[in-house]
Amino acid sequence: MHLIFSTSNYLDAAISDEHGRKLYTISTPGIFGRKTTIRKHGHKGEGDVIGVITWHAFKNTRIWLQATDCEVDAKSLLKQKVFSESGTFTGPDGQTYKWKLRATNCSLKAVDSGVELARYHGRNFGIMSPSHAPYLEVSSSAAHMLDYIVITFIYAEKLILDLQSASSG
Asked: E strands along the chain, which residues?
């Protein structure tokens, strides 16, 4: 399954499937973008809030998950070791998953099996290969936790952006 982003700005994008059906909307209003809301769209097109990420500069970012109806410290949801290029989380099935945090493409693997379940592909303008919008390629075996994948991906991408800013500045 391909989750196709309407824009490279993952904090303000619509996500559709290969058939053009809108699945998720991510919005981060305001200049400073302190709160990101993730909505899941059903067949009627209306979006239910499934997650809210409240970004903090001087204290820990918080993530509210509709599935558990609780707010958690983002660092406890996506655990990251010091100087590590990865972050792990426990899925709704109790299994452990690991996001590999890379500037060019994030990937998600099941820790136990090492099987890749998702990979981000950035926008391609078609110079060396066919052009395409940015998309998250998700294995059908991970469909049961698609909401978790989307929410943790957004947080992981922001971690990468923050790491890049820190290393260049």
From this structure: 2-5, 13-16, 22-27, 35-41, 47-54, 62-65, 70-73, 79-80, 86-90, 96-100, 107-110, 116-121, 135-138
